[in-house]
Every structure is written in C-alpha cells, then in structure tokens.
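A note on notation is needed here, since sequence and fold are reported together in a single record. The reader may check this reading against the record printed directly beneath this paragraph.
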Amino acid sequence: MALKVPICQLCWVSPAPTPSRDPGERWSFLVGQPLKTSFPSAVPGKEIFQRSCVIVSRKLSGLEEAMRIRRARELQSSVKVRKRPPLRRGKVSGKLLVPDHIPRPPYVDSGLLPELSSEHQVHNDEGIACMRAACELAAHVLDHAGTLVRPSVTTNEIDKAVHKMIIDAGAYPSPLGYGGFPKSVCTSVNECMCHGIPDSRQLQDGDIINIDVTVYLNGCHGDTSKTFLCGNVNEPTKRLVKVTEECLERAISVCKDGASFKKIGKRISEHAEKYGYGVVERFVGHGVGTVFHSEPLILHHRNDRSGCMVEGETFTIEPILTMGSIESITWDDGWTTVTADGSRAAQFEHTILITRTGAEDLNAGHICGSAYWSETHLK
C-alpha cells in the first residue's frame, strides 16, 4: 500500500515543475516538503535548460507512442469493448471492529499519521521469520479475496470477508485507521490507480479490481496486492494486467545484495514500453517490516536515485501501469486516486527479502535468484 505525502506522509514522488510555478523552482524528488532551488541567474540558459529537460523527460518514445495508437485502434475496432461510465463512489459503511486482544500498530491508538521512517528495515533471523509469517498470511487472505471477485459482488462485501479472515488469524488489518483510512483493505476498480475505499458499488462484468491486503501479525506488516479479472474482460485489458504482473516479476529478478535500486525502475520501464503502457511515477514501493512504510522508496520508472540493496532488508515492489495517461486525480475522500483520462490501470505488489544471491518473494514462498527469474522463465 503506497500512499502520497501531502495527505499521508507516504511514498509520493512530487510532480515536475509546471508553468504556474516560479521558473527556478523545483520539487523534491523524494518524500518530504517541496524543495526550492533557485538557479543562478549568472548562468545563461540555465532555467531554459531545466525546463527543456522536464519537457523532454515526459515525451513518449516513438515505440511507446506507436503502441498507444495501436492499442487505441484495437479498442475502437473491438465489438467486445463497450463504453463504460466513469467510476462512481458508493455508500461507505461504518468501520469494522477488531477484538481487543489483537495487538494494534502504534498509529491506530495515536490517531495520528505516522511519518515515513528513514531507517531501512534489515532483519535478523527472528525478524525474517516474523516477516515470512505476516506475508504468508497476507498472500493467503488475498487469494481468498480473489475468489470473491464476480459480477454483482460489492467491494464492501470483499472488505468484510478480508477483515474477518485477518482477525480470525489473530492479526490486525494494517490499513484500518491508517491516517483515517476507514476500511481494512484497498479495492481499486478499473481506472482507480490505488487506495480505493470499499463501498456499496457492485462489480460489473468486464471490470478489473486490484485488492491490496496488508496484515499486522506479531509486530510485522505483510503487504501484497493483485489485480483480478471480473467476468468477461476484453483482451486489451487482459494484456494490461498480464504485462503489469510481468513487470513485477522482472523487477524482482534484478534484486540481490549489492544491487542498485534504480535497476528496478529500469527493468519495469523497459518492459512496459514494449507494449506502450505508462508507468505511474506518483506512487512508489517502500520498506516494510515492523514499520508499515519506511525507506527505501522504490521508484518504478527510470531514475538516477542512488542506493543499493542490503542482505536481510525487506521492501515492496508495486508497479502501476496505465493504458493512457499516468497523471492522476485524487477524490475528495483523500484516498481514491484515478487516472486523469479515465483509462484503466493495473497494479501488482509483493514484499521481498534481499538475500546474498537474489531475493525471496515473501508473498510467493520461494527464492527468486537469477537462475529462477531468468528472462527465459518470464517469456
């Protein structure tokens, strides 16, 4: 579950400068308050150069643009694709109760939004065992939630089922009460990028839905999400979902002790661009463990951020791909974030543990080294 800084102090990459801002103003690339940097006026063309870099960086490559045009034509020509109304919010029911004997994360009792922890979460053997148990439970709950996805089921019903399964296991649903989030799971339908609040809206035939589950078990958070198909989904949307999952797999394949974090964004971007999909920059992965969200921030797009992975640390990789614009709009509930152009989005998320030779996918229960997550395996 990746959340944006202005509302929840989590995992948000600030946007590039816009013409409405001062010419010399930049926004911090990392979590925190906007960082202003005035360029020296003594350097001719400095401001123009900076603006040009921003514009160029946002331009699509020729291949990506061609793929977008092709996909748009496929959508227009397909008789199976029908126009759908934009996502509308339903009625949100009251918060579900958690038995008193179940331990809660510190932020629940404080009622305050926790700041992003600057510490990487590196675990000893006991901590690793705790993380494995939490992530295994989260994956099990997510699998069960996926079996409920079908036309006419409401996302509120999915939330109730997830909530019950988590508390029956003696765990706490981490999203509940986090910065005021009112539910135990995030359910993001169609054009919703992330953080959808479960409500009374019924799923429709042809929808897609990302279900994001995080559990707090024995002092550790286990975090995972998956995009599910509801009924008869058209082929272009199926392709989006498939490629998004492949992006996650390819990102995991580059992870090991000493590897650069920026390799993750490079690998995801390379694969997404082959199919003309946009990689959302605004939401990122994060360290996870005894704290819900911490450094390192995992950027899913191409970047030059420094830093290398360390054996024993855990973090999430959770790319969001779109069929159109990567820009987003957040509803006035402060959470639900949809694509600016109404195009569909898909997301997959796993928590991984860095090992000496690769990475252990804590939600899948296997070791992901170069021999396992090879390019041949992924084709």
In short: The longest strand covers residues 208-217.
